Amino acid sequence: SIYQLHKITNDVSCVLLTGTIIMMRSILIVAILLSIAAAYYICLPLPSTISEPWKLMFMDSILRGVMHVSFLAHDLGLSRPFDIAKYAASWDEIKGPQSSPAIRVTETSFEGVQAQVFESTAADQEPHLKRGVVYFHGGGWTLGSGKMQTYYLRCWSMAEELNAVVISIEYRLAPEARFPDQYNEAVQASKHILTAEVLSRYSIDPKRVAVSGDSAGANLAAAVAQQMALDNSAPIKFKVQALLYPALQALDFNTPSYQQNGHIPILHRPLMARFWLEYLNGDPRLVTSLLANNHSTPTPSQEIAAAKAKTDWTKLLPVAFQKSYKPVFPLHGDPKLLEKLPGLLDVRAAPLLAETKVLKAVPPAYIMTCEHDVLRDDGLMYATRLEEAGVDVTVDHFEDGFHGCLSFAFGPFRFSVGFRSFRSYTRWLKENL
């Protein structure tokens, strides 16, 4: 401790004192800058229909501040784009598995992919098979972990509420892993879990296993549901898929929800484009091109035209959500953009682009959408395409919801819409799984 070092030598004491003063000054400067940023962001107006706007503005000011510092450090050559944001997120992680009499938590791996397993112990003494849920956390394929309190508590509560085994997958993040690495890990872990050996080990009913996730995790869940439905080598299938405000396409950053909610917390339009570029290993400077829909050209190729038809919100969105917004087409476009980002047309990255014959094979779906979310229309368009393919779909729309709201069902930053959305989500799983 500093007190013990004082006894060793006065010189060391002076150095420590000087260092402490410098550190305190640095902290004070950062605090002042963050306070200024907070004051600025808190003054940004939010729709009165959004859940608890003042609390959300305060939270968003902190999150935006962290993200700006992270990008600034990268611009100065001090770190990679999301390193500081990752470090800040790690403060919220649970250190080591923590069990209770009701829930047993263990860490393991499936085909080399790390995971946390949350097992309800309620039926351990009975010959009773439990529900199973394979869960993928969000975070733009770049941030987050199943060990973060918000996901830890979510999976814990799901296991308890559903008397289930919830398996939270720790897929690798960008930039250490890029598409299709996250997708491949999600598929290989899911395929291993959906074996008689693994399901028997955890007393999971092979006829009652769901795949689920939120945001980027819902992207992986939807892609996994499509792949596993087509995999003839896997006799056990997912019974249902539950997608929470999923990111399903990166061809149109000007859907009505992107236009309406571009600056609404917690997921801003430029940040979503930045996440896609991290995932697809694109140059961050392409953000402006993506936001301008420059992948489109006046005379698109047959492949692009076919993909655009599957994201045509003028036909796929209910009229009530189209409002008065108009499609955005660039005057010239950038024909080489798709050469730089081939993942934009890859169905493994963009499940909304799947062929109808693929969609016909996937399990019934629950899709949660939020009115104040740039990704709202991704989920709604996917629901339409699934319904047209004959798949049973439940759309759960929250008029006062914002992106990531279910993450705020617990803890000091609890939102009413967070708790309501969690209850609605688990109720559906209880009734359909």
From TrEMBL:
GO terms for biological process: lipid catabolic process. Residues 133-285, 346-406 form the Alpha/beta hydrolase fold-3 domain. The chain crosses the membrane at residues 12-42. Keywords: Cell membrane, Endoplasmic reticulum, Glycoprotein, Hydrolase, Lipid degradation, Lipid metabolism, Membrane, Microsome, Signal-anchor, Transmembrane, Transmembrane helix. It is an enzyme of class 3 (hydrolase). GO terms for cellular component: plasma membrane. It is found in: Cell membrane; Microsome. Its EC number is 3.1.1.71. It catalyses: a cholesterol ester + H2O = cholesterol + a fatty acid + H(+); 1-O-hexadecyl-2-acetyl-sn-glycerol + H2O = 1-O-hexadecyl-sn-glycerol + acetate + H(+); a 1-O-alkyl-2-acetyl-sn-glycerol + H2O = a 1-O-alkyl-sn-glycerol + acetate + H(+); cholesteryl (9Z-octadecenoate) + H2O = cholesterol + (9Z)-octadecenoate + H(+). The active site is at residues 215, 373, 403. Its main location: membrane. One of its GO terms (molecular function) is acetylalkylglycerol acetylhydrolase activity. PROSITE patterns: LIPASE_GDXG_SER (PS01174). It is a single-pass type II membrane protein. Belongs to the 'GDXG' lipolytic enzyme family. This is Neutral cholesterol ester hydrolase 1. It comes from Sinocyclocheilus rhinocerous.
